[in-house]
């Protein structure tokens, strides 16, 4: 791994941490807060590619696990990963990997494909890990965890569009920063 790779991985870890400065919004019916940090996962995959994107999210999760208060609201510690949000957070690693992989192999600068890649990795994969973990950890029926999580979909779709817009701007203005080519 080159120094450049390490710098980019660290940069997107820091970007995801900085997105935690926006306050979390808690919903009364589910114990997982709405945050802007999931954009970090989406951007990491779309810009850094599969391996570097996943490594940036892994580094972020490790830093949270060792106690750094990097999550929205200043949360951190290993217990977070064992709590209701844990599956969603771990999903960021796989989500960034899938987004990067799809960008590397299939999107070819087609906006529709890029949108679908971000939805698959940033929503489907993250929810695919997060909802079952939420159900088990919060001791709630899977259907209730699933239905409660649906409240996050509109906001996550806005994050997908915002991510796509940011990626397009970076591709146009700074094409050398896109590592998924």
UniProtKB/TrEMBL annotation:
InterPro entries: BioY (IPR003784). It is a multi-pass membrane protein. GO terms for molecular function: biotin transmembrane transporter activity. Gene3D superfamilies: 1.10.1760.20. Keywords: Cell membrane, Membrane, Transmembrane, Transmembrane helix, Transport. It is found in: Cell membrane. One of its GO terms (cellular component) is plasma membrane. The chain crosses the membrane at residues 6-32, 53-72, 78-103, 115-138, 144-167. Belongs to the BioY family. This is Biotin transporter. The gene is bioY.
């Amino acid at each position: 791994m080159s120094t450049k790779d390490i710098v980019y991985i660290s940069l997107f870890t820091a970007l995801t941490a900085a997105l935690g400065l926006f306050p979390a919004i808690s919903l009364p019916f589910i114990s997982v807060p709405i945050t802007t940090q999931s954009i970090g996962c989406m951007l990491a995959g779309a810009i850094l590619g599969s391996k570097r994107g996943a490594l940036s999210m892994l580094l972020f999760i490790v830093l949270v696990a060792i106690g750094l208060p990097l999550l929205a609201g200043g949360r951190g510690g290993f217990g977070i990963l064992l709590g209701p949000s844990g599956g969603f957070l771990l999903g960021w690693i796989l989500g960034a990997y899938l987004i990067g992989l799809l960008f590397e192999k299939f999107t070819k600068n087609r906006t529709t494909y890029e949108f679908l890649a971000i939805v698959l990795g940033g929503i489907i994969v993250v929810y695919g890990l997060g909802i079952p973990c939420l159900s088990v950890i919060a001791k709630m029926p899977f259907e209730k965890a699933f239905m409660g999580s649906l409240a996050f979909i509109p906001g996550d779709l806005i994050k997908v569009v915002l991510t796509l817009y940011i990626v397009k701007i970076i591709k146009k203005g700074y094409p050398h920063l896109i590592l998924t080519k």
